[in-house]
Every structure is written in structure tokens, then in C-alpha cells.
């Protein structure tokens, strides 16, 4: 769809899912995860869509290991790494994506390993915290 509409929709999803497991569950039941993943796949050159889409995945899976693993199985890790590579020069996108990679890596050796294999370790995330 229209990139501006897609970006707006992602912002709405980010805000709706923020801090509410129940709302995140309702959004997932409505198939919002597919929409977010599709937006990330279809709009790689657009940093706003990449940043908001990855924040949406973060908010939809907050505090839920099963959902994080589900998103990784659906290719979210590769999409995050691609966003990092494509938009390394855009500080806000870089910061958003690295923060989410940090969250996804924190409680799972398997997820951390999959980012490490792609050449993204926790080091840049630590650097951003200072």
C-alpha cells in the first residue's frame, strides 16, 4: 500500500500495543503481525517504516517469550538485521532497531546467537546506552 498510510498504521499499532499484553493479544488475533512483517518486507528502503515496524514487533511481543520466538521464526531477526544494514546512517532508526535487538537477545541464547551469526552482537546496544 501507500507508504505514508503504512507508516501511519504502524505508529497506531505501536501505540495500541504499548504496555498492554491484552491489547497486543487482540491485535495478534486480528492478524496484525502479518501486516507488520509484510510492511517490513515490502518497504526496505523506508527508514520510518522499518523503525516503526520493528517497534511494533517489540511492543506486540513485550514480556512474552513465545511471541518473540514466533516473530523470529517468521523472519523478524533477518528483517531487523536488514534494517540495520540499510539505515545505519539514520541515527533514530539505528537506535530503535538496536534497542529491539537488545530486547530480543536478552532472555534467549538462541535468539542472541541468531543475531550474532548475522554479525550483530550486543556490543552496539551497550554503546548506545552510554
In short:
Residues 1-19 form the signal peptide. The chain has helices at residues 3-17, 21-29, 32-42, 47-60, 65-73, 76-86, 91-106, 109-117, 123-129. The protein has 130 residues and is mostly helical.
Describe this structure in words.
- The chain has 130 residues and is mainly alpha-helical.
- The chain has helices at 3-17, 21-29, 32-42, 47-60, 65-73, 76-86, 91-106, 109-117, 123-129.
- Helix 3 (32-42) packs antiparallel against helix 4 (47-60).
- It is globular.
Blueprint (SSEs and pairs):
Layout: H1 3-17, H2 21-29, H3 32-42, H4 47-60, H5 65-73, H6 76-86, H7 91-106, H8 109-117, H9 123-129
Signal peptide: 1-19
Keywords: Signal
InterPro entries: ARM-like, ARM-type_fold
Overall residue-averaged pLDDT value: 90
Number of strand segments: 0
Q: Report the structural category.
A: mainly alpha
Rg calc = 14 Å
String of helices and strands: HHHHHHHHH
Show unreliable segments. Answer: 125-130
Please work out how many helical segments DSSP would assign.
9
Helix content: over 70%
Largest sheet: none
- Outline: globular
Amino acid at each position: 500500500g501507500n507508504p505514508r498510510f503504512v507508516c501511519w498504521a504502524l505508529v497506531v499499532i505501536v501505540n495500541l500495543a504499548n504496555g498492554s499484553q491484552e491489547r497486543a493479544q487482540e491485535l495478534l488475533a486480528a492478524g496484525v503481525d502479518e501486516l507488520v512483517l509484510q510492511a517490513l518486507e515490502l518497504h526496505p528502503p523506508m527508514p520510518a517504516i522499518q523503525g516503526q515496524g520493528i517497534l511494533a514487533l517489540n511492543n506486540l511481543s513485550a514480556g512474552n517469550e513465545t511471541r518473540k520466538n514466533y516473530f523470529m521464526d517468521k523472519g523478524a531477526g533477518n528483517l531487523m538485521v536488514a534494517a540495520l544494514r540499510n539505515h545505519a546512517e539514520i541515527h533514530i532508526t539505528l537506535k530503535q532497531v538496536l534497542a529491539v535487538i537488545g530486547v530480543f537477545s536478552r532472555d534467549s541464547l538462541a535468539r542472541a546467537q541468531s543475531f550474532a551469526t548475522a554479525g550483530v552482537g550486543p556490543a552496539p546496544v551497550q554503546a548506545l546506552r552510554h
